[in-house]
Design goal:
Number of strands: 0
Helix content: over 70%
Radius of gyration: 22 Å
Structural class: mainly alpha
Distance between the termini: 20 Å
Number of domains: 1
Oligomer: single chain
CATH class: Mainly Alpha
Shape: elongated
Length: about 280
Protein backbone atom coordinates (compact mmCIF):
# COMPACT_ATOMS: atom_id res chain seq x y z
CA UNK A 1 0.00 0.00 0.00
CA UNK A 2 2.73 2.44 0.99
CA UNK A 3 4.68 1.54 -2.14
CA UNK A 4 1.64 2.34 -4.30
CA UNK A 5 1.15 5.70 -2.55
CA UNK A 6 4.86 6.49 -2.92
CA UNK A 7 4.77 5.68 -6.65
CA UNK A 8 1.66 7.82 -7.18
CA UNK A 9 3.20 10.70 -5.24
CA UNK A 10 6.38 10.45 -7.27
CA UNK A 11 4.53 10.55 -10.58
CA UNK A 12 2.37 13.47 -9.44
CA UNK A 13 5.55 15.29 -8.46
CA UNK A 14 7.00 14.62 -11.89
CA UNK A 15 3.86 15.99 -13.55
CA UNK A 16 3.77 19.18 -11.46
CA UNK A 17 7.43 19.91 -12.12
CA UNK A 18 7.06 19.78 -15.92
CA UNK A 19 5.80 23.12 -17.23
CA UNK A 20 5.69 21.73 -20.78
CA UNK A 21 2.98 19.29 -19.72
CA UNK A 22 1.04 22.07 -17.99
CA UNK A 23 1.19 24.25 -21.08
CA UNK A 24 0.16 21.40 -23.35
CA UNK A 25 -2.79 20.45 -21.16
CA UNK A 26 -3.88 24.08 -20.91
CA UNK A 27 -3.89 24.49 -24.70
CA UNK A 28 -5.77 21.25 -25.35
CA UNK A 29 -8.29 21.87 -22.56
CA UNK A 30 -8.91 25.35 -23.94
CA UNK A 31 -9.81 24.02 -27.38
CA UNK A 32 -11.90 21.20 -25.93
CA UNK A 33 -13.76 23.72 -23.76
CA UNK A 34 -14.35 25.93 -26.80
CA UNK A 35 -15.62 23.02 -28.87
CA UNK A 36 -18.05 21.92 -26.16
CA UNK A 37 -19.41 25.34 -25.11
CA UNK A 38 -19.13 27.62 -28.14
CA UNK A 39 -22.91 27.52 -28.76
CA UNK A 40 -23.55 29.04 -25.34
CA UNK A 41 -21.42 32.17 -25.50
CA UNK A 42 -20.70 32.83 -29.18
CA UNK A 43 -21.67 36.34 -30.27
CA UNK A 44 -22.06 35.53 -33.97
CA UNK A 45 -23.34 32.64 -36.04
CA UNK A 46 -20.45 31.07 -38.01
CA UNK A 47 -22.61 30.67 -41.13
CA UNK A 48 -24.31 34.06 -41.21
CA UNK A 49 -23.12 37.29 -42.79
CA UNK A 50 -22.39 39.83 -40.05
CA UNK A 51 -20.72 42.67 -41.98
CA UNK A 52 -19.09 43.75 -45.21
CA UNK A 53 -16.81 41.24 -46.84
CA UNK A 54 -13.07 41.19 -46.04
CA UNK A 55 -13.27 43.72 -43.21
CA UNK A 56 -9.94 44.19 -41.45
CA UNK A 57 -9.63 43.19 -37.77
CA UNK A 58 -11.37 45.63 -35.44
CA UNK A 59 -12.91 45.81 -31.98
CA UNK A 60 -16.16 44.52 -33.44
CA UNK A 61 -14.58 41.70 -35.44
CA UNK A 62 -11.28 40.76 -33.79
CA UNK A 63 -10.09 38.74 -36.79
CA UNK A 64 -12.07 40.58 -39.42
CA UNK A 65 -14.53 39.02 -41.84
CA UNK A 66 -14.08 36.61 -44.72
CA UNK A 67 -15.00 36.90 -48.40
CA UNK A 68 -18.70 36.47 -47.59
CA UNK A 69 -18.77 38.79 -44.59
CA UNK A 70 -18.73 36.09 -41.88
CA UNK A 71 -16.83 36.64 -38.63
CA UNK A 72 -13.45 34.87 -38.90
CA UNK A 73 -12.89 34.50 -35.14
CA UNK A 74 -16.26 32.87 -34.67
CA UNK A 75 -15.64 30.45 -37.52
CA UNK A 76 -12.20 29.64 -36.14
CA UNK A 77 -13.62 28.80 -32.72
CA UNK A 78 -16.38 26.66 -34.21
CA UNK A 79 -13.78 24.90 -36.34
CA UNK A 80 -12.35 23.29 -33.20
CA UNK A 81 -15.36 20.96 -33.22
CA UNK A 82 -14.44 19.52 -36.59
CA UNK A 83 -10.71 19.20 -36.00
CA UNK A 84 -10.90 17.71 -32.50
CA UNK A 85 -13.67 15.30 -33.51
CA UNK A 86 -11.83 13.99 -36.55
CA UNK A 87 -8.53 13.69 -34.67
CA UNK A 88 -10.14 11.68 -31.86
CA UNK A 89 -11.95 9.37 -34.28
CA UNK A 90 -8.88 8.83 -36.45
CA UNK A 91 -6.43 8.21 -33.59
CA UNK A 92 -8.78 5.91 -31.64
CA UNK A 93 -9.67 3.84 -34.71
CA UNK A 94 -6.07 3.73 -35.93
CA UNK A 95 -4.78 2.63 -32.51
CA UNK A 96 -7.48 -0.02 -32.23
CA UNK A 97 -6.93 -1.48 -35.72
CA UNK A 98 -3.16 -1.18 -35.71
CA UNK A 99 -2.66 -2.48 -32.18
CA UNK A 100 -4.86 -5.54 -32.70
CA UNK A 101 -3.20 -6.49 -35.99
CA UNK A 102 0.28 -5.72 -34.68
CA UNK A 103 -0.28 -7.79 -31.53
CA UNK A 104 -1.59 -10.72 -33.57
CA UNK A 105 1.38 -10.51 -35.95
CA UNK A 106 3.94 -10.39 -33.16
CA UNK A 107 2.33 -13.08 -31.02
CA UNK A 108 1.56 -15.72 -33.64
CA UNK A 109 4.37 -15.01 -36.12
CA UNK A 110 4.72 -17.23 -39.19
CA UNK A 111 2.49 -16.61 -42.18
CA UNK A 112 0.12 -14.44 -40.11
CA UNK A 113 2.99 -12.09 -39.27
CA UNK A 114 4.19 -12.11 -42.88
CA UNK A 115 0.74 -11.31 -44.30
CA UNK A 116 0.02 -8.45 -41.91
CA UNK A 117 3.49 -6.93 -42.17
CA UNK A 118 3.46 -7.06 -45.98
CA UNK A 119 0.18 -5.12 -45.90
CA UNK A 120 1.80 -2.63 -43.52
CA UNK A 121 4.86 -2.31 -45.78
CA UNK A 122 2.72 -1.67 -48.86
CA UNK A 123 0.75 1.04 -47.05
CA UNK A 124 3.85 2.72 -45.62
CA UNK A 125 5.55 2.67 -49.01
CA UNK A 126 3.37 5.59 -50.11
CA UNK A 127 3.73 9.13 -48.76
CA UNK A 128 0.93 9.60 -46.19
CA UNK A 129 -0.48 12.75 -47.76
CA UNK A 130 -0.61 11.27 -51.27
CA UNK A 131 -2.21 8.05 -50.07
CA UNK A 132 -4.78 9.94 -48.02
CA UNK A 133 -5.54 12.12 -51.03
CA UNK A 134 -6.03 9.06 -53.23
CA UNK A 135 -8.36 7.35 -50.75
CA UNK A 136 -10.34 10.53 -50.09
CA UNK A 137 -10.66 11.24 -53.82
CA UNK A 138 -11.93 7.72 -54.47
CA UNK A 139 -14.52 7.97 -51.68
CA UNK A 140 -15.60 11.51 -52.54
CA UNK A 141 -15.32 14.82 -50.67
CA UNK A 142 -16.60 15.05 -47.13
CA UNK A 143 -15.33 15.06 -43.56
CA UNK A 144 -16.38 11.45 -42.91
CA UNK A 145 -14.55 10.22 -46.00
CA UNK A 146 -11.52 12.29 -45.03
CA UNK A 147 -11.49 10.54 -41.63
CA UNK A 148 -11.60 7.13 -43.34
CA UNK A 149 -8.75 8.18 -45.62
CA UNK A 150 -6.56 9.26 -42.70
CA UNK A 151 -7.32 6.05 -40.78
CA UNK A 152 -6.23 4.04 -43.82
CA UNK A 153 -2.91 5.90 -43.71
CA UNK A 154 -2.34 5.89 -39.95
CA UNK A 155 -3.10 2.39 -38.65
CA UNK A 156 0.09 0.73 -40.04
CA UNK A 157 2.24 2.94 -37.80
CA UNK A 158 0.63 1.48 -34.69
CA UNK A 159 0.68 -2.05 -36.10
CA UNK A 160 4.44 -1.95 -36.55
CA UNK A 161 4.95 -0.29 -33.16
CA UNK A 162 2.80 -2.83 -31.30
CA UNK A 163 4.38 -5.77 -33.11
CA UNK A 164 7.83 -4.63 -32.00
CA UNK A 165 6.68 -4.28 -28.40
CA UNK A 166 5.03 -7.70 -28.38
CA UNK A 167 8.16 -9.34 -29.80
CA UNK A 168 10.19 -7.71 -27.04
CA UNK A 169 7.86 -8.71 -24.20
CA UNK A 170 7.12 -12.24 -25.41
CA UNK A 171 10.75 -13.28 -24.93
CA UNK A 172 10.81 -12.42 -21.21
CA UNK A 173 11.00 -15.05 -18.51
CA UNK A 174 7.62 -14.39 -16.92
CA UNK A 175 5.88 -15.05 -20.27
CA UNK A 176 7.59 -18.43 -20.51
CA UNK A 177 6.55 -19.15 -16.92
CA UNK A 178 2.93 -18.26 -17.67
CA UNK A 179 3.00 -20.43 -20.79
CA UNK A 180 4.44 -23.34 -18.83
CA UNK A 181 1.71 -22.99 -16.20
CA UNK A 182 -0.90 -23.63 -18.89
CA UNK A 183 -2.11 -20.12 -19.74
CA UNK A 184 -4.04 -19.95 -22.99
CA UNK A 185 -2.86 -17.84 -25.91
CA UNK A 186 -5.66 -15.33 -25.31
CA UNK A 187 -4.75 -14.97 -21.64
CA UNK A 188 -1.06 -14.66 -22.43
CA UNK A 189 -1.73 -11.90 -24.91
CA UNK A 190 -4.31 -9.91 -22.94
CA UNK A 191 -3.07 -10.37 -19.36
CA UNK A 192 0.69 -10.70 -19.65
CA UNK A 193 1.86 -9.13 -22.91
CA UNK A 194 -0.40 -6.22 -23.88
CA UNK A 195 -0.28 -4.47 -20.46
CA UNK A 196 3.50 -4.20 -20.88
CA UNK A 197 3.29 -3.07 -24.52
CA UNK A 198 0.98 -0.04 -24.37
CA UNK A 199 3.31 2.73 -23.24
CA UNK A 200 4.96 3.57 -26.61
CA UNK A 201 1.56 3.37 -28.31
CA UNK A 202 -0.02 5.82 -25.86
CA UNK A 203 2.86 8.26 -26.27
CA UNK A 204 2.81 7.98 -30.06
CA UNK A 205 -0.97 8.38 -30.19
CA UNK A 206 -0.84 11.54 -28.07
CA UNK A 207 1.77 13.13 -30.31
CA UNK A 208 -0.09 12.01 -33.45
CA UNK A 209 -3.19 14.05 -32.62
CA UNK A 210 -1.54 17.20 -33.91
CA UNK A 211 -0.37 15.50 -37.11
CA UNK A 212 -3.86 14.14 -37.74
CA UNK A 213 -5.34 17.62 -37.33
CA UNK A 214 -2.83 18.91 -39.88
CA UNK A 215 -3.45 16.08 -42.36
CA UNK A 216 -7.24 16.44 -42.10
CA UNK A 217 -6.89 20.19 -42.63
CA UNK A 218 -4.70 19.50 -45.66
CA UNK A 219 -7.43 17.36 -47.22
CA UNK A 220 -10.00 20.10 -46.59
CA UNK A 221 -7.57 22.67 -48.02
CA UNK A 222 -7.58 20.90 -51.39
CA UNK A 223 -11.33 20.28 -51.33
CA UNK A 224 -11.38 16.63 -50.23
CA UNK A 225 -12.42 17.16 -46.62
CA UNK A 226 -15.09 19.36 -45.05
CA UNK A 227 -17.16 21.22 -47.61
CA UNK A 228 -18.41 24.83 -47.53
CA UNK A 229 -19.95 26.44 -45.59
CA UNK A 230 -18.51 24.32 -42.75
CA UNK A 231 -16.10 26.39 -40.61
CA UNK A 232 -13.30 23.83 -40.83
CA UNK A 233 -9.76 25.14 -40.42
CA UNK A 234 -8.30 23.69 -43.61
CA UNK A 235 -11.19 24.97 -45.71
CA UNK A 236 -10.82 28.41 -44.09
CA UNK A 237 -7.11 28.52 -44.93
CA UNK A 238 -7.98 27.59 -48.51
CA UNK A 239 -10.36 30.55 -48.58
CA UNK A 240 -7.57 32.72 -47.18
CA UNK A 241 -5.21 31.56 -49.92
CA UNK A 242 -7.72 32.77 -52.48
CA UNK A 243 -7.61 36.21 -50.84
CA UNK A 244 -3.90 36.37 -50.13
CA UNK A 245 -3.70 40.04 -49.20
CA UNK A 246 -6.49 39.70 -46.65
CA UNK A 247 -4.12 37.93 -44.27
CA UNK A 248 -6.57 37.70 -41.38
CA UNK A 249 -8.79 35.18 -43.19
CA UNK A 250 -6.18 32.43 -42.85
CA UNK A 251 -4.45 33.77 -39.73
CA UNK A 252 -7.04 32.51 -37.23
CA UNK A 253 -7.29 28.89 -38.39
CA UNK A 254 -3.54 28.78 -38.99
CA UNK A 255 -2.78 29.77 -35.40
CA UNK A 256 -5.45 27.33 -34.19
CA UNK A 257 -3.83 24.39 -36.00
CA UNK A 258 -0.40 25.42 -34.75
CA UNK A 259 -1.49 25.78 -31.14
CA UNK A 260 -3.45 22.53 -31.00
CA UNK A 261 -0.60 20.62 -32.62
CA UNK A 262 1.90 22.09 -30.17
CA UNK A 263 -0.37 21.28 -27.24
CA UNK A 264 -0.57 17.60 -28.14
CA UNK A 265 3.17 17.45 -28.86
CA UNK A 266 3.96 18.98 -25.46
CA UNK A 267 1.73 16.41 -23.73
CA UNK A 268 3.23 13.51 -25.67
CA UNK A 269 6.77 14.64 -24.97
CA UNK A 270 6.05 14.95 -21.26
CA UNK A 271 4.28 11.57 -21.14
CA UNK A 272 7.30 9.96 -22.75
CA UNK A 273 9.50 11.25 -19.95
CA UNK A 274 7.02 10.31 -17.23
CA UNK A 275 6.20 6.80 -18.46
CA UNK A 276 9.73 5.84 -19.47
CA UNK A 277 11.23 3.99 -16.48
CA UNK A 278 14.71 5.02 -17.57
CA UNK A 279 13.83 8.60 -16.64
CA UNK A 280 13.31 7.71 -12.96
Amino acid sequence: MSLSISTSTQRFSVITTRPVLTIGLAIVFFWVFVALTIDIWSVYDPLKIVGRKLLEPSLQHWLGTDALGRDVLTRTLYGARYSIAISVVVVVCSVAIGSVLGAIAGFFGGWVDGLIMRLVDVTLAFPPVLLAMAVAASLGPGLQNAAIAVIAVWWPVYARLMRGQVLDVISRDHIEAARASGATSFRLLTKHILPLSWTPTIISATMDFGQVVLLAASLSFIGLGAQPPSPEWGAMISDGAAHFYSWWVAFGPGIAILSLGLGFNFIGDALRDILDPREH
